[in-house]
């Protein structure tokens, strides 16, 4: 029989030459197999495996799959008492077969069977001393099976497999295999996500992300994007558990990492940075740490402005909300001019029609309505009452133009505020018209929406109070009686009503009735 030196071909040898030589030798084995003269099996499956490797290099994967399959068949055929002679060769064939089959859809259950067999063989090879834990082969097998079990929805088995892989890689790390750190960090991330999403085990998920972050931090060149991602997930888990201070610490870590990189890479832009600044700013504001909130909003606004200058409108929606939130924070500090500037910039961005050209903005009308309402409030604080009325007119017109039933609820506050300012300015006719316009706009919803009925009853009461104030007692009484009827109906339907308003409304009724008896007016403070 000719020499089998071609099994040791030089890796730099031309593929075609090596493939031709291997094929020539395999033909001899095939002839012997056909004539039932195949006694020595060792070299035949080895040759098939090597040719399969070359076929894969030439992207002839189906032909390679056939070689791996036949290699396993031959080895099983000549097994002694079910014991395969060359387990390492059989493992190579089965492993290669798995790699190819895993690229084909709908073979998950077959792949699971192969994984089970691979794990069994690797365990035997470790016992025989062919493999060791340090090789990283057995954990790779468990990772494969974890992925398949996860993809088919068997999360219990997936959790068992990834936990086995983690334990093995921890052993390898303990034995000084430092190269496993990155892989182990990734496994902790995957298990943390599995525990979070599929098992809702937030505490253990946090523990896994803590391990993951520690390992990432100790790498020579940590992947900053992945590190920010892991901090972000852990922060969100803390937030879900209402451990807000821990969450803020993680958001702060993200901000520190991103800002450091942002200074070095001028074009760097990360959702992690903007999201974390927004979360931290909102938290500071909720805790009354207004100055710290303003600092974060300011940094966030400046970053997004620069991105917009570079035609990156990804965070345009966040910019609008940040301007609104910073404006509200300025209001908390009575920095009215600064607040007015933020609201004005927000509305200017909206008026530039950026939202029509960019799908980045959502809820544009909600933000606009809130900004207009806030701007009217700051103008009122600055005693620029006529300007406040104009802003409220714009807001009311916007809501009416939308003409959606659920939006009409938003007419109540601007209508009430506008009427109240007009009363303060002594423009009573305009104030009454504002009340009447509100009632006319929403009256059709009264029968199907008790909240709408509540708004109308309040407005009718305010209108009655104004009518009483200007000595129109007949219409004031009609309105107050109507409001009283609505109030009691709402209470019967478990709708909360301000009891002071009910009492004030009743006073109007009682006073007017007394006036009709005494034919003279009593002075009455209705506010």
From TrEMBL:
TPR-type repeats, residues: 320-353
Top-level taxon in the UniProt lineage: Bacteria
Alphabetical UniProt keywords: Repeat, TPR repeat
Tagged with keyword Transmembrane: no
SMART domains found in the cross-reference section: TPR
Name assigned to this protein: Tetratricopeptide repeat protein
Organism whose genome encodes this protein: Ureibacillus xyleni
